[in-house]
Amino acid sequence: AKQGRSGFKSTALTKMQTALSSRPAAFSGSRLRTDVGQQRVAPISRVAVPMVHAVAAGATDTERVDGRALRRSLNQTGRYVRQPTNNPVSQQLMDEHGVGYSTSGLVAQMRSQGNRWKQGEVSVKLANAYGYCWGVERAVRMAYEARQAHPDKKVYVTNEIIHNPEVNKRLREMNIEIIEDHGKGKDYSQIAGGDVVIFPAFGATVQELNDFKARGVQMVDTTCPWVAKVWNSVDTHSRKQYTSVIHGKYSHEETVATASFAGNYVIIKDPKEAQYVCDYILNGGNREEFLAKFAKAVSQGFDPDTMLQRVGLANQTTMLKGETMQIGKMLEATMMQKYGAEKLNEHFLLMETICDATQERQDALYAMVADPEIDFMVVVGGFNSSNTSHLQEIAEHKGLPSFWVDSAERIDVGSNTILHKLAHGELRETANWLTPGKPITIGITSGASTPDRTVEEVLHKVFQIYDPAFGGVAPKECGRLAVPEEH
Q1: pLDDT, tens digit, for every residue of 123-134?
Q2: How far apart (Å, rounded) are the C-alpha atoms in residues 326 and 324?
Q3: Around Cβ 373, how many Cβ atoms within 10 Å?
Q4: Residue 30 has pLDDT above 70, yes or no
Q5: What residues pair up with 156 in beta bridges, in sequence order?
Q6: Under a CB-based contact definition with an 8 Å cutoff, are residues 374 and 441 in contact?
Q7: How far is CA 375 from CA 123, 368, 370, 405, 438, in A?
Q8: Which of 254, 273, 393, 456 is catalytic?
Q9: By C-alpha distance, which of 385, 232, 237, 386 is closest to 299?
């Protein structure tokens, strides 16, 4: 068993390894065929899967896999799981590791008393919507359950399960290998038949799904249902012969996966790029300039002169809701101006794909930055988390001082300094960021991939700076957070 954060043995992990190793896997989705479970397929020398599948327009096209049919076919393999089992041993281990919802710590206690807390001179207001979304918690839970169900197998994740360093560290401690792209593509050559492969919350590309289906591995698909909803939308665009305009970051794992399910597409990151596309639709333009501008963000063989006559909008689920809505209105107005209102539906297709969790966290922060009682914000979440960066961006645009940290380790109690990140990437160290002796009201929120314990640890350090004798908040059982039912 691995050592826990405090140095003691992980009791739940020990139970998992001993009590469950002799019983058949309960996480196989349907009965696993004996020949698949015993036979290992010889790996090829190297499978390099690039992080970015979008290529420059004009490149040689390859045979496109029908993403919708492929996803349906995975259920028929007997090696595919896409729902959690809510196993109690996995829940115990998640609680021990602090990678689930808080049930007795500071965040849980704040939740039970109107999202407020007062510790000496420090008053804290917790955003009404914050932290772990249902899809992220679900993905982490399924990864823990996969390790439990297959204690003796090699387990891999095709990327970080979520954008949180502590959660990914815990998976590695359980001998779950995370395969990342370090600039040369992902190397899957070590994965063989009978191994377990977890697809992260962001999803996996059509090419990856097809490859692992053929390899005979046990597949655990933790893709967030909201991400899958976006896949359905771009698939519909393709079937109805619309080009997908995807609001997102072309190199982000989720957008890479979404693009792989699309037919013709162009990825735009903000309203400025959307305006460029709209101007091209209305007035035409320099084709070579367009293709150079979106060289890494268009489908193979993309032709802006013919493929922008009918467009549908989709989005990376972690983008700013307001920007996605603005881009939709821009495209709608452009098509009405070009083709007339009576023909709008022939040229523009809009399907609702804005993630509820992303929207709720952004709306809650807009309300919080308008609160005159709050002196400054603390935003907690992974530095590579897109949805967290947008939370920080909201505070910055409002002009409210805000400190974005990915963990409590960024705060030095002794020197009263904080190493924090700005919305657009700059790391900054601020000395004397707190003023002990002066009452203060702090607003705090966290990204959708941030467990409650990380928020609690950040606040504990704030309290220690104000009161060196602070020894922590006594646990108090508050019950579990209600989450949507799995459908």
Answers
A1: 999 999 999 988
A2: 5
A3: 8
A4: no
A5: 177, 197
A6: yes
A7: 10, 11, 11, 17, 12
A8: 254
A9: 237
**Cα–Cα nearest to 473, from 449, 450, 457, 452:** 457
Name the average pLDDT for the chain. 86
SS3 214: helix
Instruction: Tell me if residue 241 falls in helix, strand or coil.
Output: coil
Residue found under tokens 């807390």 = 117
- Contact (CB, 8 A) for 170 and 147: no
Which residue matches tokens 């992220």? 136
pLDDT of 5 > 80? The answer is no
Burial 88-103 (b: 16+ CB within 10 A, else e): ebbbbbbbbbbbbbbb
Q: How far apart (Å, rounded) are the C-alpha atoms in residues 472 and 106?
A: 9
- Give the model's confidence band at 412: pLDDT under 50 very low, under 70 low, under 90 confident, else very high: very high
Q: Which of 266, 228, 227, 231 minimizes the C-alpha distance to 247? A: 266
Specify the 3-state DSSP secondary structure of 243.
strand
| Phi and psi angles of residue 212, each rounded to the nearest 5 degrees, phi first | -75, -30
CA distance 47 to 288: 33
Identify the pLDDT of residue 317.
87
Q: Write the pLDDT tens digit of every residue in 61-102.
A: 445 678 889 999 999 999 999 999 989 999 999 999 999 999
Both tokens of 449, joined, read 């991939």
pLDDT at 68: 85
Q: What is the pLDDT of residues 85-96, one digit of tens each?
A: 989 999 999 999
- Is residue 349 within 8 A of residue 287, CB to CB? The reply is no
Structure tokens at 75: 């259920």
Task: For CA atoms 344, 349, 352, 355, give the dihedral sign.
Answer: negative
* Average pLDDT score over residue span 449-455: 95
**Going edge to edge, which strands form the sheet with 348-350?**
265-268, 243-247, 311-315, 348-350
- The pLDDT of residue 481 is 75
Contact status, residue 123 vs residue 68, Cβ threshold 8 Å: no
Pairing of strands 402-405, 348-350: unpaired
**Residue 380, CA atoms < 13 Å, CB-side half-sphere:** 27
Q: Are 57 and 301 in contact (CB under 8 A)?
A: yes
In single-letter form, the type of residue at position 31 comes to R
Assess whether 332 carries a catalytic annotation.
no
Q: What's the sign of the alpha-carbon dihedral 390, 396, 402, 408? A: positive
pLDDT at residue 63, as a whole number:
59
How many whole angstroms separate alpha carbon 379 and alpha carbon 444?
A: 6
